[in-house]
Structure formats: structure tokens, C-alpha cells
Amino acid sequence: MKIAFVSQPMDMVVPPYQNSLGLWTYHLAPLIAQAHEVLVYAKRSKAQNAYHGQDSVQYRFIPPVIPNRLLAAALDKFRRKNALPVFASPLYSLDYIYQVARDCRQRRVDLIHLYNFTQFIPVLRRLNPRAKIVLHMTGEWLTQLDPAAIQHRLQAADLILGPSDYIVEKIRARFPQYAGRCATVYNGVLTEVFTPPAQKADTPNSRTGKLLFVGRVSPEKGVHVLVEAFRQIAAQFPETHLDIAGPLVSLPREFIVDLSDDPQTAALARIYEQGDYTAYLHSLVPDPLRDRVRLLGGMPQPDLVQHYQAADLLVNPSFSESFGMSLIEAMSCETPVIATRVGGMVEVTGNGEFGLLVEPGDPAALAAAIRELLTDEPRRRELGKKGRARVLSTFTWPQIAQSLLRLYRGLRKQGSGTRN
User: Fold this and answer.
1) Among 125, 276, 367, 381, which residue is least crowded by beta carbons within 10 Å?
2) What is 210-225 written as a DSSP string?
3) pLDDT of 50 higher than 70
4) What is the pTM of this model?
């Protein structure tokens, strides 16, 4: 079977600075290629165009065709006349997906696996009427956008994936007619790379420690809540530091905040109105703590591993999280985790069995959880060991690949033909 992974237009799929979906594709593609012919499509950029690819995986980088000024004018016109946000417009990255669809047809691709952008489905289906189409949703857009428009697009999808049961069950509830096409496929981690340190230093008198956040530094990730929680514990733990690792780029507010029906998430609009989020975070750190809070920016995976291994706690204070990649990366390193009781993170942590959970948007509760673990070194060790075992049993890339291959085989047994 010939399989194509179609990256989002903004995805960086090659090292060293991959986003989460870029990592998903990069690690899964060679495993799938052990049994099938695999192509990976991504938008051309200077870094990606110079990439020579992995063994057995063909990378095809698609150049832009429509000038940005013309596309911006067309999208602005769409914005004024339609209920759908611009990123869900049929015009959004149309030049990209049309070239991908045409190339898939020329190469007679049997299965096309794309991410999040439902407007790509009709284009792919029109040019590839006999291919199986897999829509992989890593967020909540299917249940937040106009249901009539989404339903029309889903008709041509043969399989709808989510990274957690949380996402999949929401899709099934919104579109019960497609419930049988939905399945969960988790994210994974390289357990041979994300490993426990050879020896982690103890924290003498429970008064030192390093807190770590990993992810996009954006309002919906709740980094400001973590900074406020750190302020509350800083005096009690004068040697504790907070490292914030991840791209210093806010997600456009229309992607999550403007769509959310959760009052706390919707209220994050006020932070966007204040301007640059990084500057806002700096404003929350009082002068005496300046040298104890570091914004590290994005970094390659090997450098990130070192931060996980050195950390005493990984904290994910997100308001919206379909899975929680930083949790399994930390757990794989035997670093205990604290997360908010949000989305797929409840599932990843076994509803609190493999990490502490607090309510989102509550700095005091987050500070209390941090305090609890900083003062209980045996509990930290216990959670670290349990977390690593959880990852090894559930979240390795070979396990994810086998789950995906089983679903692909199920589609193949259905035979070819256009969905009605």
C-alpha cells in the first residue's frame, strides 16, 4: 500500500526544530515504511527543502504558488461573508493542498493521512476518488466549527483519528453518524532517548529544585498561571528555579481561544489584548526573581532531554490540551508531572495515578501541588518510576505504529471507492 502523510502548512517536520505534529510524522513514517511505501508532504521552507529524508521515506516539499497579497485579499473577503474562521476556509492554503492532491493522484497513493484541516478533504477526494482518506484531529475544531460545514467535509473521510479518548468521544457525540469511523491513536515518545538520568541529585532538606515547563509559550498553555504559582512558593523554596522551554510564539487566538465554550479559556482573550505574551510573562516576574525564571525558547530534542532529566518536576498548566506531549516525555525520563484536569491530560496521567492533577487557572492550587511534591522526595521518586512504566506500556512509537497499521488494514479490507 502506498501511504501519504500530509503535514499542516505550518508544520516543521524535519530536525532540529520540529513541532509536535512534525515529530509525530517524523517518528511514525519510517515505522510504517517497514511494511508500506510512504511519502511525506510538507510546505517548502529553506530548512525543509535542504532535508534529504529518512531511509525508505520520500519527502516532498511543496512550494507556494499564490502570492501572499492575493491570498490575504481573498481570505479577508471570505472573513467578511462567512461564519467559518479564516483557517477553516476552503481558500486557506489551497495552493498547497491542490499540489499535494495532484501529486498523490500522479503517484497513485492508496491512503492519505492528513491533520486537522477539514477543508483539504474535498480537494483530496476530488483528485483521488479511490484513495482512503484519514483525518487526524489533534484539537477540538470538529466540535467547535460550524457543524453543517464540517459534516459535509467528513462525508469523504474514511477514518477520523484523535490523540485521546477525550477528543474522540467529543467527535462521536457531535457527529454520531460517523461514530463508527472514529478511533484513538495516542502520541508517542522515543523511550530510548527520553531516558532517566544516570543519577539525579537529591534535593537537600527539600529546599532546592528545578521546575520545568515544555511547550508553546502561548496564553492557552497557562504559562502565566505557572509563573504566578512560582511566585507563591519562591520564598519557601529560595533555591528553586523555573525553566520555560518552548517556542516564544503565541498561537493565533482564533485557533483556540475564540472558539472555546470554556469560560476560562475564552477569558484568555484579555491577555491577547495586552499585546506580546512573552513581555506579559516578564511583567509577572518581580525583580528579586528575575534570575530564577528563564525563558529558554525552542530547542532540539537532545537538548530538551537534558532539561527533563535535570528537572525535579514537569508542570503543564494548560487550559486546553488534547493530549499533553510534555507529560509523556517527562514521564519517560522518570520526572514526575503536575498537570491540569483538562482534556487528554487526565487520560495520560491515569486520572491522577501517574501524576498530580489540579484545576486550570488556579495558581494557589498549582502552588500547593508543587509544594507537596517538592517536600516529598519519596513521592517524587514513586511517581517518576510509575510514569516511566506507564510510558513503556502505552506510549512507545512502535506501539503507536502497530495501532495505526491495524486501522489502516481495516480500511483496506473495506475495499476502494468514494465515500457517500
Assistant:
1) 276
2) EEEEES--SGGGTHHH
3) no
4) 0.91
